[in-house]
Design a protein that fits this description.
The complex is a heterodimer of chains A (about 140) and B (about 400). Chain A is α+β, with helices and mostly antiparallel strands. Chain A contains five helices and eight strands, in the order E-H-H-E-E-H-E-E-H-E-E-H-E. In chain B, helix 1 runs parallel beside helix 8. The chains are: A alpha+beta (about 140), B alpha/beta (about 400).
């Protein structure tokens, strides 16, 4: 399946992917209007070190520990391999946060959890984080 | 191929999904003494809390049995297993034949002997949807509830009912609350939080005698009550398998393919004995993720595939009144501690490996710690100071990151 892959040496640490992710979640037309003055809650997060930057989001694992561990059944893997969250069903126990080896699942403001769903519920096509990356530091492809 | 599963919870669902990865046509029969579509057991406290509804408690969608071509037999109890004849007997006299059997009977509340308990009219355990509904019926704003047991189940129950009753008192023999998952300092922090939300504790104490409406504690304290909830602990349901001649050592003994000592019989979930790799000991791990993964492994093997589950560790994610706890592994070795206001972090290191951790409040990216325990990653391979400060992939080598994030083999 196509996933978001990281080319670490190309990452500038600009954090634009985080803004594009947050923007995609709003479903709005204008990024500045959608995000101005708001704290963003992206599903992709850039880690910064000394001259190292890279983005981390859900790996959509073939053996997803989060899905297997979910105590309510709110997390599932769809027919294409995308791991999605049913926020209505989630009870925010955070067993998925306990389970994800990459730290790619975070609490959400609505009292559930949130994670990358490869934009299948929002903009579809190429995930917005990848589409907006200025330096090909993240790509959407099969590997 | 005919598969039969006793039980209809996390381990059973894991087994069905495991079987169907390998065998899409064999018949699967699920027998359950509970009458419900598979539901998430931990949600019973959220039901009382009003954060979910009975209709929303399903562990898998409504079409789950149909989609997986499962014959579901709710409200039936298996009374015996005949391993020679490859049959199980039901309470209605029916006999059902199997080629492969999964024993996934879970656990039952353990109720210790307590003087005068038989005189208490409104007494409940807290394990099933039926028990939660029965308890709920007795509660109103004047009810005084006494909970015996300050473990995960007792305190989840307390959280679930606190808003609807007059008061909730919790008694436990142990000096600390949540003694199976917290150390002294963490337990003290959580206890304060729970007291701030109106729970009252008698620790290091126990009920010496019940009358109809009052418990006299060993310390001499008198606790008047209307309702008692017994949540001292759970015990694996092993009797049927033991009677059939299977090996049991507190829990059902299984190998890493989830096979029992009896031919063609597998077991998974709370009824089994697990091997905890963080302490290298065998123990009962009554945890939902463990039940699912054991069940899935059993299912794959029952259907002729190959799978092992050999990475069991204790792990818990649990919140009370908005304060979250995540813990995993065993608390042995050198402790690295960082305590803030309403946050608590302790990592335990020995033999160059992360063995366990306790987090309260700030639980961000906790799974990175869990993974270090589960994968037994040598801490010399990572920047431990960095990962202790803030769990992240920055603490790993570039090569490791290229595998995780770049798909490198
Ligand atoms: C209030 C509460 C909160 C919890 N919270 C958490 C949590 O936050 N995280 C976590 O990891 N775990 C939690 N747990 C534990 C979790 O629910 C169990 O680990 C999990 O349900 C185990 O699944 P299982 O399939 O092994 O067995 P069970 O869920 O116990 O199911 C076994 C089923 O088999 C049936 N059965 C038994 N014998 C027979 C028979 N002879 N014939 C027919 N049917 C039979 C039983 O009635 C039962 O329905 C909680 C438990 C409770 C009670």
């Amino acid at each position: 399946m196509k996933r978001v892959y990281v080319n670490e040496k190309w990452c500038l640490g600009c954090h634009l992917c985080e803004y594009n992710c947050a923007f995609a979640q709003t479903g709005k037309e204008d990024m500045a209007l959608a995000l101005k003055g708001k704290q963003i809650h992206p599903n992709i997060r850039v880690e910064d070190g000394d001259n190292i930057h890279f983005a981390v989001n859900c790996r959509h694992c073939d053996e997803p520990l989060c899905v297997k561990s979910c105590i309510t059944g709110a997390l599932s893997r769809d027919e294409n391999g995308v791991i999605t969250i049913d926020k209505e069903h989630c009870i925010h126990c955070y067993t998925c946060i306990l389970s994800c080896p990459y730290g790619a699942i975070v609490p959400s403001e609505e009292g559930a959890i949130q994670k990358c769903e490869l934009c299948i519920k929002t903009t579809q096509g190429t995930p917005r984080c990848v589409a907006g990356c200025p330096n090909n530091a993240i790509v959407f492809e099969e590997r | 191929m005919e598969y039969v599963i006793i039980g209809n919870s996390a381990a059973a669902v894991g087994c069905i999904e495991g079987i169907r990865q390998v065998d899409q046509t064999g018949g699967i029969t699920v027998i359950s003494d509970e009458k419900y579509h598979t539901y998430s057991r931990p949600l019973i406290s959220y039901l009382l809390l009003g954060e979910t509804t009975e209709a929303n408690m399903y562990y898998r969608p409504a079409d789950f049995y149909k989609k997986n071509n499962v014959t579901f037999m709710p409200g039936k109890t298996v009374t015996a297993i005949d391993p020679k004849a490859h049959q199980v007997c039901l309470d209605d006299g029916a006999k059902i034949s199997y080629d492969k059997l999964l024993y996934a009977t879970g656990s039952s509340p353990f109720v210790p002997q307590m003087q005068g308990l038989e005189r208490v009219k409104k007494q409940f355990t807290f394990m099933t949807l039926d028990s939660a509904k029965a308890l709920d019926k007795t509660l109103d704003s004047s009810t005084r509830v006494l909970i015996v047991g300050a473990g995960l189940i007792g305190l989840k129950c307390a959280e679930g009912i606190r808003h609807k009753v007059a008061d909730v008192t919790v008694v436990d023999l142990a000096p600390n609350i949540l003694s199976s998952i917290l150390d002294d300092d963490a337990a003290a922090m959580m206890q304060k939080h729970l007291e701030n939300h109106g729970l009252r504790f008698y620790l290091n104490d126990s009920v010496q005698q019940f009358t109809e409406d009052t418990a006299t504690l060993k310390s001499g304290a008198q606790v008047p009550f209307d309702v008692v909830v017994l949540a001292v602990g759970v015990r694996p349901n092993t009797a049927l398998l033991e009677e059939a001649g299977g090996k049991v050592n507190r829990g059902v003994v299984i190998n890493n393919k989830m096979k029992t000592s009896l031919p063609d019989i597998y077991a998974a979930g709370d009824c089994t004995r697990s091997h905890d790799i963080s302490s290298d000991t065998d123990r009962i791990l009554a945890l939902l993720p463990n039940a699912y993964m054991q069940g899935e492994t059993a299912g794959i093997n029952m259907a002729g595939g190959k799978a092992v589950f050999d990475k069991a560790i204790p792990m818990n994610a649990i919140g009370f009144f908005g304060l979250h706890i995540i813990t995993a592994g065993s608390y042995t070795g050198k402790a690295y501690t960082k305590i803030g206001e309403n946050t608590y972090k302790k990592l335990f290191v020995s033999d160059g490996l992360l063995k366990g951790y306790i987090l309260i409040g700030d639980i961000d990216r906790a799974g990175i710690y869990t993974s270090l325990i589960r994968e037994q990653t040598p801490l010399s391979d990572i920047d431990f100071d960095l990962v202790f400060e803030k769990p992240g992939l920055l603490a790993f080598s570039r090569e490791k990151r290229a595998q995780i994030l770049g798909g490198a083999k």
